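Thread amino acids onto this structure.
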């Protein structure tokens, strides 16, 4: 070897199984299954194009029997035989390596991993370097100086830092950790009860497996100590099983592995025979034609449906669900034994991806118990694992796995960094699994089909699984009502017969996986990939941790508020009865309508479809604006009643044993990307009223801690100045001027110094009104001035800032042309009503189109900040700090009192740097014992 060698080693056996399970069924022109062959071929083509070393080889397993079987006969003995459709593909994959001119190497009695270890050792001894194309955790022990790994699916490097992040120890200690924790996938026994965290902690403390075992008798008495002593020999055997041999005789010498250009005639003939000529076209070897082109197009469509293959079709390739996902539904398995569950876990690990869903006995993930779970590693292949079904005399539940045993088998799959877990509404399932004992921070990586869809289609339709299934798969899933009943006849899911529960639950994961196959490849063409990967997907676990943490409330203060509101409502009721001329049920819209419009004869009433008078807030506000007393009193009473029922009463009911409230953040509801919250809704507490302030005062920090509020200042106006490119507004923000006073000065021609507060108030109303597309009529009502005067203000505003009018017209035009508008960060906000014939509805949609980029842009910015803040706080050593609440443009943190100032500083820095605009982002922070003090 005359030059510095770089050997690229491909873990062929590992890739075969991942490709087989990742791709839907495919056949070549002879009818032979080829989905794994196609995936392997794409991988080799990309490797030769992008990651060519000086030397190259593909390593395969020769047989199941290796030297490890002699050490421990149970090693991998439980693994099922390869699927029927995979068996004929092994020889074709070996043909593929020959067609590409790449050496394919195997050796009886040794695993491919041992050959990889030995070749990597040999090339390092020769002064070269090695790249291992694999994500197999067993190969991570080889990473070190001159040896790295590359995940062939995600095309991401794996170096010492990534290995330590996974195992908690450097690569040279990986085998010690693996020996302690064992591996149920390969039947490596390990020490019972020792998981990844405990294993890495022990090795970190004592240095090696042997040192841990030697120290065990001196450890504090515990179950862990007893297990280490009792299973010491099993751990030593495990060490032999997981340690790769690095001195296997090399079947092909290093000097015989130089990378060569493939013989294009040989390769073209083989690819044509297989129906893979689209691969040849991408390698510059010509274009497919005729019937071969049709076959290649079908193969390309199959590949593009799976967003994880190393080489996929061009972004314009079609992914018809009928062709791509044609596997039948409802042929699902009920898993009742550990052996059966282990087979499904192994299948999922080999596939490299798996849809997962949980079934519970409640809708609150922080309280619900796990009734069962389902897995789906490939379309049409799904199972349900019942855990806590009660059964009846007519339909007994039958054998079920004990929950802890099932979760023990499931844990390695969920915690495997090389397997993508796919959920629909992942936040719910992560919290359910966390409560069941699998910490949400250990699960990953995760995809969420709800958020994948939402990132592309906010406002266009709902994001529920059933709706997306009908829309994208043309399939109507089994409904929850059909298995549990409805109304008074509804039964808990734990009482659903297991056979019905299995079909329902397993189908959910099947549908979820098929949706992923269809929706994930569409992210890039929809220009939503960055939004999903950088904002929505990483935000889900952040919000899950916030929901789990909750926020503390002062129950005594809430009780006082509730009593006070009730007393004030009683006083109000007497005045309402006097104004109405008689007593009536104030909460009855029907009775109120009769009094206002039949008895009092007020004008402006509107009847609904049922013939009753409408008495909603807009109707009452119109009557109040006309000077009528009763509607004013009703509005005040309703406001207090809502605060009492929604907050003071509800919060008392919803606190846990630690007096904390846990809201649920809805991630895929709004058109603009804003978060909303439910149970309780903490987003609508009035900001500027005395009652709202009193309610905020009831949200408190526990003793010794503080609440820290961080709030973006006028973020939507800053976005308006940026996207509409308004120099005067940009200058004002850069200079730190009062933006409303500056607007008043610019529009009304009055000096900034000594400005009349009324003039500033009018400018403020216009500034915020413009964001929401306010009309002259709306502004006149808000300011209490004639409509003509309001119109003159708006005209003067646009005359001074013509760029804002241009922006508004652009947004309306874009919505009319495309059906959506874009935030400054690329989020599509659909505006379905933009084509309405009704002028009123169309104008409402136009106002949505104007506001959505600003409100959505603000949502994008604060979400970016929320994703970055946990790591920033950890890096700053602020371990006590927790983000507990998000309300529109404000974040609320809880931290130890002595760290509060530092938390505020980190929040300001991260939030201000979450986006780059032509104007500065300003964040105002406050610290207090309660929310009102901090805000």
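Threaded sequence (935 positions):
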């Amino acid at each position: 070897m005359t030059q510095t060698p770089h050997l690229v080693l491909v873990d062929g056996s590992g890739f075969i199984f991942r490709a087989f399970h990742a791709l839907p069924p495919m056949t070549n022109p002879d009818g032979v299954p080829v989905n794994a062959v196609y995936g392997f071929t794409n991988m080799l083509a990309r490797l030769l194009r992008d990651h060519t070393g000086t030397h190259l080889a593909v390593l395969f397993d020769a047989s199941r029997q290796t030297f490890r079987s002699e050490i421990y006969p149970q090693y991998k003995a439980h693994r099922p035989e390869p699927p029927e459709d995979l068996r004929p593909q092994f020889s074709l994959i070996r043909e593929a390596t020959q067609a590409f001119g790449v050496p394919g190497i195997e050796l009886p009695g040794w695993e491919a991993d041992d050959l990889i270890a030995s070749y990597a050792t040999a090339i390092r001894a020769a002064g070269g370097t090695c790249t291992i194309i694999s994500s197999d955790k067993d190969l991570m022990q080889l990473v070190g100086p001159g040896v790295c790994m590359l995940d062939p699916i995600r095309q991401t490097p794996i170096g010492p830092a990534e290995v330590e992040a996974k195992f908690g120890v450097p690569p040279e200690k990986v085998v010690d950790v693996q020996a302690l924790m064992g591996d149920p996938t390969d039947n490596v026994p390990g020490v019972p009860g020792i998981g990844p965290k405990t294993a890495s902690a022990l090795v970190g403390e004592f240095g090696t497996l042997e040192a841990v075992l030697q120290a065990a008798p001196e450890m504090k008495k515990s179950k862990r100590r007893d297990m280490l002593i009792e299973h010491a020999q099993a751990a030593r055997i495990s060490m032999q099983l997981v340690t790769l041999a690095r001195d296997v005789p090399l079947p092909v010498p290093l000097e015989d592995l130089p990378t060569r250009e493939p013989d294009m005639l040989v390769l073209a003939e083989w690819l044509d025979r297989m129906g893979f000529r689209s691969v040849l076209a991408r390698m510059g070897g010509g274009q497919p034609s005729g019937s071969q082109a049709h076959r290649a197009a079908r193969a390309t469509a199959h590949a593009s449906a799976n967003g994880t293959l190393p080489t996929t079709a061009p972004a314009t390739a079609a992914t018809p669900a009928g062709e791509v996902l044609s596997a039948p539904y409802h042929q699902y398995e009920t898993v009742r034994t550990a052996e059966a569950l282990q087979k499904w876990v192994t299948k999922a690990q080999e596939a490299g991806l798996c849809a997962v869903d949980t079934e519970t006995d409640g809708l609150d993930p922080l309280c619900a118990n796990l009734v069962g779970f389902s897995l789906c590693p490939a379309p049409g292949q799904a199972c349900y694992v019942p855990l806590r079904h009660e059964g009846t005399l007519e339909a007994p539940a039958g054998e079920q796995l004990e929950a802890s045993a099932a979760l023990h088998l499931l844990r390695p799959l969920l915690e495997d960094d090389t397997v993508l877990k796919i959920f629909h509404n992942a936040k719910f399932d992560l919290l359910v699994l966390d409560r069941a004992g699998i910490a949400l921070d250990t699960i990953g990586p995760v995809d969420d089909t709800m958020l994948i869809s939402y990132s592309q289609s906010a406002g266009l339709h709902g994001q529920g699984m059933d709706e997306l299934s009908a829309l994208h798969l043309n399939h109507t899933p089994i409904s929850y009502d059909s298995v549990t009943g409805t109304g008074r006849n509804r039964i808990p899911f734990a009482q659903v017969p297991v056979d019905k529960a299995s079909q329902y639950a397993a189908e959910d994961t099947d549908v979820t996986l098929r949706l992923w196959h269809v929706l994930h490849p569409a992210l890039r063409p929809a220009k939503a990939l960055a939004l999903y990967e950088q904002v929505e997907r990483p935000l889900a676990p952040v919000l899950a941790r916030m929901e789990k943490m909750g926020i503390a409330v002062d129950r005594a203060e809430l009780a006082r508020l509730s009593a006070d509101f009730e007393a004030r409502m009683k006083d109000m009721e007497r005045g309402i009865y006097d104004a109405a001329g008689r007593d009536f049920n104030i909460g009855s819209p029907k009775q109120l309508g009769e009094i206002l419009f039949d008895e009092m004869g007020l004008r402006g009433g509107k009847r609904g479809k049922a013939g009753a008078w409408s008495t909603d807030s807009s109707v009452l506000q119109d009557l109040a604006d006309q000077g009528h007393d009763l509607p004013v009193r009703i509005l005040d009473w309703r406001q207090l009643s809502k605060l009492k029922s929604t907050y003071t009463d509800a919060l008392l009911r919803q606190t846990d044993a630690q007096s904390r409230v846990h809201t649920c953040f809805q991630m895929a509801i709004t058109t603009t990307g804003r978060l909303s919250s439910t149970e309780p809704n903490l987003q609508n507490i009035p900001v500027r009223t005395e009652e709202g302030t009193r309610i905020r005062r009831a949200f408190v920090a526990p003793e010794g801690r503080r609440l820290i509020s961080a709030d973006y200042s006028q973020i939507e106006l800053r976005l308006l100045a940026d996207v509409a490119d308004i120099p005067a507004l940009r200058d004002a923000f850069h200079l730190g001027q009062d933006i409303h006073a500056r607007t008043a000065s610019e529009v009304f021609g009055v000096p900034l110094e000594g400005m009349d507060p009324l003039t500033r108030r009018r400018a403020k109303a216009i500034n915020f009104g413009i964001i929401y597309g306010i009309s002259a009529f709306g502004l006149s009502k808000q300011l209490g001035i004639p409509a003509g005067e309001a119109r003159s203000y708006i005209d003067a505003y646009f005359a001074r800032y013509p760029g804002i009018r241009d922006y508004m017209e652009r947004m309306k035009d874009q919505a009319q042309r495309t059906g959506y508008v874009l935030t400054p960060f690329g989020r599509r906000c659909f505006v379905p009503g933009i084509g309405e014939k009704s002028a009123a509805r169309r104008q409402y949609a136009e106002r949505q189109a104007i506001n959505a980029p600003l409100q959505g842009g603000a949502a994008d910015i604060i979400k970016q900040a929320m994703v970055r803040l946990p790591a920033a706080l950890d890096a700053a050593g602020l371990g006590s700090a927790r983000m507990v609440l998000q309300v529109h443009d404000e974040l609320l943190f809880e931290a130890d009192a002595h760290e509060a100032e530092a938390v505020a500083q980190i929040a300001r820095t991260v939030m201000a740097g979450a986006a780059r605009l032509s104007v500065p982002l300003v964040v105002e922070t406050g610290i207090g014992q309660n929310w009102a003090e901090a805000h």
